[in-house]
Amino acid sequence: MAMVDVHRFAESITCHAWSPDHSMVAFCPNNNEVHIYKSSQDQWERLHVLEKHDQIVSGIDWSSKSNKIVTVSHDRNSYVWSLEGGEWVPTLVILRLNRAALCVQWSPKENKFAVGSGAKTVCICYYEQENNWWVSKLIRKRHESSVTNVAWHPNNILLATTSTDGKCRVFSTFIKGIDTKDSKAGSPAESKFGEQILQLDLSYSWASGVKWSPSGNTLAYVGHSSMIYFVDDVGPSPLAQSVAFRDLPLRDVLFISEKMVIGVGYDSNPMVFAADDTGIWSFIRYIGEKKAESSGASYSSQFSEAFTKFYGQSKATTANEASESSKSRGGVHDNCINSIVPHSKAGSPKVMRFSTSGLDGKIATWNLENMQEELGHQFQ
After folding, report:
1. Which of 243, 329, 365, 372 gives the lowest tally of CB atoms within 10 Å of its CB?
2. Residue 376 pLDDT level (bands cut at 50, 70, 90)
3. Distance CA 17, CA 70 (A)
4. Nearest to 367 by CA among 378, 358, 376, 356
5. What global pTM score does this model have?
6. Measured between alpha carbons, how far is 359 from 191 in angstroms, rounded to an integer?
7. Which residues are bridge partners to 269 per DSSP?
8. How far lies 83's CA from each of 48, 89, 305, 371, in Å?
9. pLDDT digit string, tens, across residues 258-273
10. Which helix (H) or strand (E) holds 59?
11. WD repeat ranges (predicted)?
């Protein structure tokens, strides 16, 4: 089983991010503040409280190279925080939004960051040296509903988005003067700003939790219908797979290697998905599960649950029994897990450690080093 370090910081946590050396964590305790804690001798000490937003903070990302924190909020604002003289100093970002900002992520080179919003737009923000401020260019009229998540391709140009319109899209974010055309001629990365490279209509429900594989060859995202989607060869002729599972929907995903993905969500337990030698993806197990269920047992259990619920025989299942069932699968969280982030060196082809945060106020750090044999060759 994976080794887990768990600490409860608040009643509920909206999002979190780690400092470059992973000694500090920034999170939103489901309000308009960002708390920064530092780990020292197995104890957590609160160092800073960032107070600038007026409404709940919906997204945090901490750059690994420049040591800057970017935050977004339902108040439609974004701030870039810089550490100066022991204090975090905010700089306002001009987003030009009329709806809530919902998510944010630094680009791999950290010269841009992307903000998804409830205004059906994506803001690509960059620093203007001449005016000493952060400005944004908007990708408009592409989404039909709120943008729930964003993910940067390793080339620093392509950006994947998910939306409550059920679609996943890939855009070019090339900005003249900020980006350089160092890719192969005619590649999607050389497309003009805001050009849609791909639109995926695989989900018939809300889509969220999108990520690229370390190489950028595979894209994964999740739907609210307990489905996860994998797309290879992103471009004019993509190869797509859909994997259904019997448990509650996922909220977020993370590639820990080219052939393995961790998904987290409403089931409160991280789930492992992997591709076999032929490239076919499937659900493998829960992280804390001692032995994966066979497919026959899984479907049998699913049928039994549906049968008893249909005939009203589920009264015998108590809350304690449900809790024990969750614990038997290695349940660390007591409520929905809303985010998963790597807890290892940025840009690493294999993630040995990652962290999750949820509505139970806990942040859990997972170590997969002792699970490599259990997870198999897909982890390599």
Report:
1. 372
2. low
3. 10
4. 356
5. 0.87
6. 40
7. none
8. 11, 6, 53, 37
9. 999 999 999 999 999 9
10. strand 57-62
11. 50-91, 140-172
3-state secondary structure 325-345: HHHHCCCCCCCCEEEEEECCC
- Token pair of 349, please? 């082809």
Q: pLDDT digits over 291-327, tens only?
A: 444 444 444 444 445 444 444 443 333 334 444 444 4
Residue whose entry in the numeric block shows the structure tokens 């614990």:
327
Query: Which pLDDT score, from 0 to 100, does residue 211 have?
Result: 97
* CA separation for the pair 292, 289 (Å, rounded): 7
pLDDT digits (tens, 9 = 90+) for 123-141: 999 998 888 889 999 999 8
Q: How far apart are CA 252 and CA 339, in angstroms?
A: 6
Q: Which amino acid is at 70?
A: V
Give me the phi and psi of 29, to 5 degrees please: -80, 45
Whole-number Å distance between alpha carbons of 222 and 207 = 6
Per the CB < 8 A criterion, the answer to whether 27 and 9 are in contact is: yes
Per-residue model confidence as pLDDT tens digits over 230-259: 999 887 788 999 999 999 999 999 999 999
- Torsion sign across C-alpha atoms 198, 203, 207, 209: negative
3-class SS of residue 275: strand
Average confidence score pLDDT of the chain: 86
Running DSSP on this structure, what letter comes out for residue 285? E
pLDDT, one tens digit per residue, over 203-231 is 889 999 999 999 999 999 999 999 999 99
Strands, E assignment, 41-95: 43-51, 57-62, 69-73, 78-84, 87-93
**87 CB contacts (<8 Å, ≥6 apart)?**
48
Distance of CA 89 to the CA centre of its chain: 26
Burial of 234 (C-beta count, 10 Å sphere; 0-12/13-18/19+): buried
How far is 375 from 44, CA to CA, in rounded Å?
Answer: 31
Q: How do beta strands 69-73 and 78-84 pair?
A: antiparallel
d(CA 258, CA 235): 19
Q: Which helix (H) or strand (E) holds 91?
A: strand 87-93
